[in-house]
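Supplementary Methods S3. Complex input for the iron/sulfur cluster-bound model.
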Amino acid sequence: MSPEIIRDLGHRNSINQWYYYQTFTVISSMNTSVENKSRKAVALVSGGLDSMLAVKVIQDQGIHVEGINFFTGFCVEGHTHAIRKKDRARPKRNNALWTAEQLGIKLHIIDVSEPYKDVVINPKHGYGANLNPCLDCKGFMVQRAYAWMQEHDFDFLITGEVMGQRPMSQRKDTMPVVSRESGAGDLLLRPLCAKLLPETKPEREGWVNRDELLDFSGRNRKPQMALAASYGIEDYAQPAGGCCFLTDASYSSKLADLWQARGEKTYEIDDIVMLKVGRHLRPRDNFKIIIAREEGETNFLKGYRKRFLSLGTTSHTGPIALIDGEPSETDLELAARLVARFSSGRDADSVTVEVLQKDGTSSTLDVQPLPSNEVPQDWYV
Amino acid sequence: MSEQELDARGLLCPIPVIRTQDRIEQMQTGDILKVFCTDPGVIHDIPAWCRINGHEVLSIDEEDDQVVVMVKV
Ligand code: SF4
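Predicted complex, serialized as structure tokens:
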């Protein structure tokens, strides 16, 4: 059966689609060109299924692929796992590393957290539903990967983007924006939807065979799942909203609150890590209180006691809390009552709270825990 | 052949992995790198990174709240 016939069958109906994918692998490897042995592609590897499939499709054409993964500080990977004790029961894995291992490719992890600040703070194309600057972010990452590609003598760049899958960065009209603004131009190939896009240099030059690339579009993930099954890939990460915390509404509102309280859009890595930890309450404009939710968070927040004023109950077991801002004496008492409310002494008449200054000096306050009806919902950031 | 140390304590994953990667890039084959960490995530992540990039993990020691990973470049 010729590749054309199989492709026809594949497109005719969904039952045949499975068969198409099954056969796809065999045909692709048959077509592997000797000349391609020397071609090299760098892939943006997020740890999700799409980038995994994009690499597979290109590897099948005899191209040497290596992965690149960017650490922005907002990545869903890592942080919270290290902090929250209850998450430790689950075996932890870094999905990008795991994906690279499954694919048998090298992975270069690059810390871009400093230059990435400008993307988050001043996105030219604005934000998505939350504080996610997806279009600028994609452009930034592709631009960085393109620079890496040139530095390391690779030939082209691939991503796992699927047309129409994400509202901001993966639309028919925005995908060319990423190619253009990143500088990668037609060296950026999206194997999963290449057939819906203009021909790129790797296709034109015959480094890859366009006929064997795909035409996935829309939010329906069935084609990806079928292709994964054809490769025998059963285990993969399924990020719900996006690849980073900025797509999360509650995280974004904490970041917006931080910027508002500071009167300017700035942040340090410690700030954005802290937004992932504990309950955040802002009882007054001039201070915010971060209260640990469990032991892991308490231990984590303890590490910041030299940078923030901290509170902890001594007469009863309870969480540690950090204060961000400049509280007055009255504010401190309110904060202490709040911490007492989250301790085991919440029903006691009086709870002793230790106030630890940044320089290590401490004092104590005996307070009555704040009743729940005196903690308005809008204090929660 | 040299033995070097890397202090990645207080850093959260994947930063210790990135620091390990960047340091190893400067080292020679056969050299040993001893990485001191506090994020238990490195127990999985550094060996995974080493497997992918062809380096050998000689040992992982957990003592108190610290993890020490020895890597042979
Ligand atoms: S979800 Fe986050 S990492 Fe992904 S493109 Fe959007 S801003 Fe970038």
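Chain A has three domains: 1-36, 39-244, 277-379. Residues 282 and 288 of chain A are 4 Å apart (CA to CA).
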